[in-house]
Design brief:
CATH architecture: 3-Layer(aba) Sandwich
Membrane topology: Peripheral membrane protein
Keywords: Amino-acid transport, ATP-binding, Cell membrane, Membrane, Nucleotide-binding, Transport
Distance between the termini: 46 Å
Family: Belongs to the ABC transporter superfamily.
Number of strands: 10
Helix content: 25-40%
CATH class: Alpha Beta
Subcellular location: Cell membrane
CATH topology: Rossmann fold
Shape: globular
Strand content: 15-25%
Strand order of the largest sheet: 6-7-8-3-9-10
Radius of gyration: 18 Å
Number of domains: 1
Pfam families: ABC_tran (PF00005)
Length: 247
């Protein structure tokens, strides 16, 4: 019996900025219900890699498949991006719209939902992330942690089959990090397929099925979480862990 196709498959991806080779023959996959954490030193290509998954960054070699369909061949990128929700480092909310409208706009324009359906979905998700009381506020009236939880709710409002997170806590004050990670842990426990770029190794240890370690644009290691933290195979990964894990 054939194994099911992965939700996300990255095949030999190359990416250049001019002459600079920023992604070098990167290959990995994320199966349904799997949580994969991508880590590595600054400048290793982590954020660029995750942005190629929904074509926010074009690639110059290889291919990326979402639920079996090629991203590079896609002619309807907005439709493709509904399949993979994206949460950014700096929230990317519309500052001139209130929170409720931030959650309903794409539902109506991209998915064609009527106002009542979109508002119902938005309200349920705001309750889920503990922000129902803030629906009428604008993003600038919320803390960073609250804005990031809104961003997660907005991505979920499109009913994605997978979620991408690009360093979702790195722009937050330390006391706000856990409120965002708690929402992500809940998603993981509910079986959401997730690919997460993060330096939060406690989160990785707790919920990730696999860890992808990158350095200098290449995937150096791709292994089960326990093995990565217990006995990383590469000297690069061991050096990275020695710097970020508590002694």
């Amino acid at each position: 019996m054939n194994a099911p196709a992965p939700i996300i498959e990255i095949r030999g991806v190359d990416k250049y900025y001019g002459a600079h080779h920023v992604l070098k023959q990167c290959s990995t996959r994320v199966d349904k219900g799997e949580i994969v954490v991508v880590c590595g030193p600054s400048g290793s290509g982590k954020s660029t890699l995750i942005k190629t998954v929904n074509a926010l960054e074009p690639i110059q070699g290889g291919d990326i498949l979402i639920d079996g369909a090629s991203v590079t061949a896609a002619t309807d990128l907005p439709k493709l991006r509904t399949k993979v929700g994206m949460v950014f480092q700096h929230f990317e909310l519309f500052p001139h719209l209130d929170i409720l409208r931030n959650l309903t706009l794409a539902q109506q324009i991209v998915l064609g939902r009527d106002v009542g359906t979109a508002r119902g979905k938005a309200g349920a998700l705001l309750e889920r992330v503990g922000l129902s009381a803030h629906a009428g506020k604008h993003p600038g009236q919320l803390s960073g942690g609250q804005q990031q939880r809104v961003a997660i709710a907005r991505a979920l409002s499109m009913d994605p089959m997978a979620m991408l997170f690009d360093e979702p806590t790195s722009a937050l004050d330390p006391e706000m990090v856990n409120e965002v990670l708690d929402v992500m842990v809940e998603l993981a426990e509910e079986g959401m397929t997730m690919m997460v770029v993060t330096h939060e190794m406690g989160f990785a240890r707790r919920v990730a099925n696999r860890v992808v370690f990158m350095e200098d644009g290449a995937i150096i290691e791709d292994s089960p979480t326990d093995r990565f933290f217990r006995d990383a195979a590469s000297p690069q990964a061991r050096r990275f862990l020695s710097k970020i894990l508590p002694h």
